[in-house]
From TrEMBL:
Protein name: Peroxygenase, variant 2
Family: Belongs to the caleosin family.
Listed transmembrane segments: 81-101
Enzyme class label: oxidoreductase
InterPro entries xref list: Caleosin-related (IPR007736)
Keyword flag Membrane: yes
Entry keyword Membrane: yes
Keywords: Membrane, Oxidoreductase, Peroxidase, Transmembrane, Transmembrane helix
Signal peptide region: none
Enzyme Commission no: 1.11.2.3
Recorded name of the encoding gene: SOP1
Any one GO molecular-function label of the UniProt entry: plant seed peroxygenase activity
Amino acid sequence: MAAVEANPVERNPELSPVAPLAPVTIDRPVRTDLETSIPKPYMVRGLVAVDMDHPDGTPGRNHHDNGIIYPWETYAGLRKLGFNIVVSLLLALFINVGLSYPTLPGWFPSLLFPIYISNIHRAKHGSASETYDREGRYSPVNFENMFSKYGRTCPDKLTLRELWDMTEGNREVFDFFGWIANKVEWGALYVLASDQDGLLSKEAIRRCYDGSLFEYCAKMQMQPQAKID
């Protein structure tokens, strides 16, 4: 029988991510086994969102569009995802008004509030999980660490309380906008994609990062009525 390869951290204690005098490094553990499934897990990805169960990302996922998102397109997408008219309208305004100007190719604002995907990295706020880096690339290790740090109930799902703890743990000093934006974004995703047990799955979150959340929700046969009545 072939011997099981020992974890590098077990072979070399100096690689341990735990600092005994810093209890938070014990309370929020990070994964040390990512390389068993994900090739080069510390290398950011530009086109796919990978995890331990999907080392190649979402099969058949394409990235063809015109690269511009207008408020009415955001609204239509939210409606398709199951939000009611009022919530879809408010979220569309919040998203496009907040993200439009930083992503514009010029200095003059547009009253149509378009979001240019080519410049979406400029709209990244603080107090986030850093699953996206400053240039908008996807980081597998930071994605997996969300669950190792905060997934206490299930290893591949998060409760509403755990989501709250995560947003609190990611807070940066005096970043008031980031605090609010982070909670609004995760709250919206929880309302949309949580299951009947009140848990937000790892796969739903991964699909949110790669843009295939709508296909995922349809495949899982979510309730046809709006998530918020």
